Amino acid sequence: MPDKDYQFKAILKSLNLIEVHIPKSYNGAGCTNFYLYEDGKYIKELHIASKNENSKFFTYNLDEIPELKIGVDYEIFDERNIVIQLNCSYLCRLDKYIDRTYFDGELGAIYSKEKTIFRVFSPLASYVTVFVYTKEDEEIKKTSMNLVKDEKTGIFECEVEGDLEGCSYNYIVKVNGKYNEAVDPYAKAVTRNSRHGVIVDFDKVNIDLNEECLPKFNKITDAVIYELDVRDFTSQEKSPFANKGKFLGMTESGYKTKKGIPMGIDYLESLGVTHVQILPFYDFCTTSDDHPQDTYNWGYDPLNYNAPEGSYSSNPSDPYARILECKKMVASLHAKGLRVVMDVVYNHVFNMELSNFEAICPNYYFKFNNDGTKSDGSFCGNEFESRHLMGRKFIVDSCVHWVKNYGIDGLRFDLMGLIDIQTINEVYKACTAIKPDFIIYGEGWDMPTCMPSNQRANMNNANLIPNIGHFNDRFRDTSKGKTNHSELYIRGYLTGDTNYRDGFKHIFAGSTLPIAFPPLFNDPKQSINYVECHDNNTLYDKLKVCCYDDNEDELFRRLKLINAVVLLSCGVPFIHMGQEIGLSKNGDHNSYRSGDLINQMKWDVLDSRKDLYEFFRQLVALRKQYSFFRFDDKNTIEQSIRFIDESNGCLVIDFFNEEVLAPFKNVKIFINPTKSKINVNLYDYYQIIFNESGSLISEFYSQHLTVNSLSLVVAVKK
Predict the structure, then answer these.
(1) Alpha helices of 626-695 — where are they, by DSSP H?
(2) DSSP characters over 553-579
(3) In angstroms, rounded to a whole number, what is the distance separating the alpha carbons of residues 48 and 402?
(4) Residue 351 needs a FRET pair 20 to 30 A away by CA distance; which of 27, 396, 665, 699 works?
(5) 342 lies in a domain?
(6) Tally of domains within the chain
C-alpha cells in the first residue's frame, strides 16, 4: 500500500490557506490550476500562492479562498479533473464556527418501548446514518435510518419505531468526504470489546443503591479517602474471593484472615474511612474483555466514558450484567456506610485519531496549538477540548449520568489542570444539585497545555474553583521527601531532614498560612493531603531508599508517624490501598501495567502487620472523634493553632483556642522525626490520648512527657 504521505491531499490550514499535496508519480511536471467545488457545484478557481517540492510530491499553498460553510462537502479539482476531497476539520477549531452550534438537550440513544430517538452532534458532517443490529447478534443488521440535520445546532436526529431494547447500534458519519463508523460517545452500554453501543432500559437495573445507609456528611474535611482499584483489591490468587478482580468481588463479605482481621469490603468498613476512591471503572481500552488475565491496565486510557468496564464484569457480553454488577458494587459500599468517588479521565482519550469523538466530528473535541499540532499536556498524545461548548456539555452530562444512574458520591479528576475552570465549576454545580454533599477534587498540576494559564483548573487558580480540592504535592514532598524516582533518596521533614520544619508547619495548616511558602489555598478544604497514591513508589518503598539506615522496626515506626500526620493535619486525608500496612511494589514506580502481583492488595500480609492495621483504625477514629482535626477554614486555623520549635528539630503543634477544643482546654501534638527521644516539660497536667502505640485509655496525667523517637504524641488538658 502506498505511503499515505504521498497520496493526494487537500487540507484547510487556515481561513485563507489550503495546502494541496500532489504525488509526482501522478504528474511529474506539477499542476497548473486548482478549482473549488461545493457539494459538486463549481465555486471558483483558487490562486496558487506558492509551490514546493521534494523527491516524491509537490506541495501547493492556495489562497483567495471564499468563506466556507461548516458541514458541507468541498472538493478540489486540478486541470485534469482529478478530484481531491478537502479536509475542513480546521473549521472546528475556530470560535467563529463552533460557538454558533450548541444543543442543550439529551443526546445518545433515548429509549422508550415505542421508539428510540437517536441524536448525535456533528456539525462538520454532511450525512449520518444509524445502523441497528439485532439483539441476538451484533453482526446482523436489523434496520438503518438516515438522521436529519439541524443546521443551527449541528445535531443529527431520527426516530426508529418499535422496541429496540437490547439492540446494538453504530453511526456511519460522512465527514470531509469520508465515511467513518463510530460508537456513540453517549452510549450507556457497549458490546463485548466495545465494538457497538447498546440500547438499554435502565428501569431493568433499577436496584436500591442503599444511599439511606450513608452517615451524615457535612463537609469535605470530614472525609477520609481510601484509594483502590477494582482489580487490585480482590485479585490475589490465594485470597478467598470468588469474583477476583471483578465488580462483584467488591461486594463479597464475611471473609477474615487467620487472626480475625476482616477482608474485602469488610476491611474497608473496619478501617473507618468515609470515601472509597476507585480507579477508572468506565470502559477503557487496553484490557481485553475476552482475556483480561493476559493484560493489565489501571484504565487511564478512556474509550467509552458512560459504560462500565467489561473486564470487571462476570459477563462482558451482557451489557446489563456490566451495569448491574457495577451498581451492586456501589450499593454494597453504601450499605457499609462508605461513599464512592469515581476516578475520571476527561482530559485525554487513549488514541485521538481512532476515537469516536474524532470519527464523528474531527478536531472539535481536541486542543490544537497555533501551528496546527496537537496540544499534549497530558503526555498521552492529545488533550480533550473542554472549552468547546459541546465538549463541556459532554463532560457535565457524563458526570451527571454516573451520579444519577450509579449513585456515585464524588469525582476525582485525573490531570484536572488540563480542563478549564468553567467546566469544573459547572460539573460541581450539576452534581451538587443532585447530591448536596458531593465532593470533587483532582490533580491540579500546571501542565504544558495550549490553554491560557488563567483558564486552567489547577492549583494556581484554586481561588477560582473554591469548592474543588487539589492533590497537595507540597504536602507530599515536604513531609516525606522527593517523589520522583530519580530523587527518592532526598528526605523530607518526617524522613529525617529537620531543615524542613518550617515548611512542615505550612503543610500541617492546610497550606493556607504564609510560613516558609506562600499559601496554596484560601482554605484547608482544598488541600488533599497525601504521601502515596497509585502513581510513583509506595511510601514503604520510598522509605527503604531515603531512610536506608533505618532497621525494619524504625522503618515501620516512621511509617506510622507519617500516616498519623496525614490523618491529623488540616485538610482532607488521602490514603492509598496498602499504605496503612506498608505494602511494597518491589520498587516499581510506574506500575500502571505491571500486573497483578505488583499491584494487588496482599491480604496475606495483614496478620503479620496487625499492629499497623490497628494503629491506622485508631488514628482514623481519633480524627473523626474530634472536630479540631477537621477545620475547614483558614481563619479558624489562624485563631486556634500555633507552632513551637523543640530541640533537635522536633515540633509542638499547640491548639490553644478553647472555644473550638471541646471537651478540652488545650491540645498539643508532639512530632519527633529523629532517632533520639526528647523530654518535654508541660508545665501543667496533661493526659496522653494517642502515641505510637495508638489510642490510650489511661486516666494518667503528667506534667512531664517523653516523646519517643520517630513518633507522634497527642496530649490534652481538660
Answers:
(1) 634-638
(2) HHHHHHHHHHHHHHHHSSSEEEEETTG
(3) 52
(4) 396
(5) no
(6) 3
Q: Do 137 and 81 belong together in one domain? A: no
**Strand, coil or helix: 114:** coil
Asked whether residue 124 falls in the same domain as residue 72, the answer is no
Residues 82-106 pLDDT 10s: 999 999 999 888 877 777 889 999 9
Q: Could you give the angle at which helices 473-480 and 552-568 cross, rounded to 10 degrees?
A: 150
Strands 17-23 and 641-645: unpaired
- Position 636 scores a pLDDT of 98
Tell me if 624 is assigned to some domain: no
Look up the pTM and report it.
0.96
CATH number at residue 81: 2.60.40.2320
Q: How many residues does the chain have?
A: 718
Cell of 321: 450484567
Distance separating alpha carbons of residues 20 and 12, to the nearest angstrom: 9
**Residues 128, 81 share a domain:** no
Q: State the greatest distance between any 2 C-alpha atoms of the chain, in Å, as a whole number.
A: 100
Question: Which residues participate in catalysis according to the annotation?
Answer: 414, 443
3-state secondary structure 520-555: CCCCHHHEEECCCCCCCCCHHHHHHHHCCCCCHHHH
Residue 177 structural domain: 97-182
Which of the listed residues 87, 107, 122 is the one where a domain comes to its end? 87
Residue 72 CA to residue 75 CA, distance in Å, equals: 10
Residue 120 shares a structural domain with residue 83: no
Write out pLDDT tens, residues 685-697. 999 999 999 999 8
Other Cβ atoms less than 10 A from the Cβ of 673: the count is 28
Instruction: Looking at the structure, tell me whether residues 708 and 649 fall in a common domain.
Output: yes
User: CA-to-CA distance for 518 and 509, rounded, in angstroms?
Assistant: 12
- Where do we find the cell 484490557? 287
What was the pLDDT predicted at 2?
Answer: 36
Gap between the Cα atoms of 146 and 473, Å rounded: 51
In this structure, is residue 394 part of a structural domain? no
Which positions ≥6 away from 215 have C-beta within 8 Å?
Answer: 274, 337
With contact defined as beta carbons under 8 Å apart, do 102 and 121 qualify? no
Q: Is 701 left (phi over 0), alpha (psi -120 to 50) or beta?
A: beta
Where the chain has pLDDT below 50, the residues are 1-6
Percent of the chain predicted with pLDDT > 90: 93
